[in-house]
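We modelled each protein-ligand pair independently. The example shown here corresponds to the flavin-adenine dinucleotide entry; the chain sequence is given first, followed by the ligand as SMILES.
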Amino acid sequence: MHGSGKNHPVPEKESQRPVIYDCIVVGGGAAGLFYAAGDATETASCQPKLLLEKTARPGQKLLMSGNGQCNLTHGGSIKDFLWKYGDQGKRIRSCLYRHNNLELMSMMESMGVPLTEREDGKIFPASMKAREVLDALLATAKSGGWDLRCNAEVTAIHAPANSNAPADSNAPIEVVLATGARLQTRKLVLATGGASYPATGSDGTFYEILRRDLGLAINTIRPALTPVYVQDYHYQDLSGISFPDVTITCGGHTCRGALLLTHKCFSGPAILHISQYVKAGDPMVINYLPSFSKDQLRQKLKEDQSGNKLSVANYLSAEFGLPKAFVEKVIPTSQEAFRTLRSVDRDLIAEHLSEHAYSVSGTGGFKAAMVTAGGVALEQIDLKTMSLKDHANIHIIGEALDINGDTGGYNLQFAYSSAMTAR
Ligand SMILES: Cc1cc2nc3c(=O)[nH]c(=O)nc-3n(C[C@H](O)[C@H](O)[C@H](O)COP(=O)(O)OP(=O)(O)OC[C@H]3O[C@@H](n4cnc5c(N)ncnc54)[C@H](O)[C@@H]3O)c2cc1C
């Protein structure tokens, strides 16, 4: 893509006759780039098409995705994707089904990016380099005639009152840049992302423009897929220890999955998933042995007690696979009442492992959130085209919408599916 805009049609106010773009995409993140690359693979046309990116470099969040390895999607059945987007999942069914994970994988491979599927079904580029994905999208978009302009922040949109009205259907939409330049386009695709990791460019400020200029309702945004902090966190020296399967209950929700202890907070898929529902002051309960309720665990301990000479730490680690260092941290194994399984206080052990209670002190917030929950309310979008119900030529795709998925490739899949639906 022409990063500098050298070969680009002359900006309107400098030319004799104003250029009217065939399409302008605002936002050079995953969704905007999928749109441009997808459009390029199908219809290389000579119509001027422009992608505007606010920062100096496109795809910054894409480069960070999957720890720089880019978990593009998941290899499972597309039917199983729906519940990964919570209550909103069923609303985007047709978008996901029409432009599904297989289509995304085939598009990447046709762009020269071989993929690999991990044991857990997550799909990555075989090189495990997000850079390869970004480069392929940029090259494909460029070859399809897309012009990329960086450091081009859109600050206003002037749309004909109702582009669905026949008289207005050809009236161009005007986009105003921070420099004051005004550009006109027949089709506008907004791919400005959410508010997480604001240093990547998606800092949430575009929601105000959508509200002010297009009259859109924005559902309250909040950080999602972010770590959770608790009072009196005392697992600093256990950082890196993970549990493959726990249940976490907080804020009226329960999530099951893996948990990771870090230096300062809880992380890992189950915590990331529940993070959008928690707030400071909430009680949070973790069951480290989710196959047992507190009563069932108490009963099992009772049954295993007789004649058992193992230390509590050895027993819990051998029987349930719990890390010994963790057991020694949460259960006072040096006290007589906890030294051997025979002498153990069953109630306390069951409480510590099946219903360990914490008090939430906060979350990682937008700075550390992988995605944004909330955003443009879906009621305003025709989900067959991703266009505004009031403006058939204005489309919104990707994370700017009130859709957020779980970890596992579901957010990039939605960026792709929504982008393809908007073509
Ligand atoms: C650390 C991290 C790891 C992640 N890992 C994964 C993963 O492995 N798999 C997965 O599926 N998802 C992952 N995600 C989530 C995924 O990256 C996002 O959901 C996805 O990038 C959203 O794409 P988007 O294009 O909608 O928004 P973004 O990628 O945020 O792009 C929006 C773009 O719009 C630009 N922009 C904003 N305002 C303007 C304006 N006024 N004018 C011009 N341009 C503007 C921004 O600068 C930005 O470049 C991860 C996210 C993070 C932060």
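Residues 228-363 form one domain.
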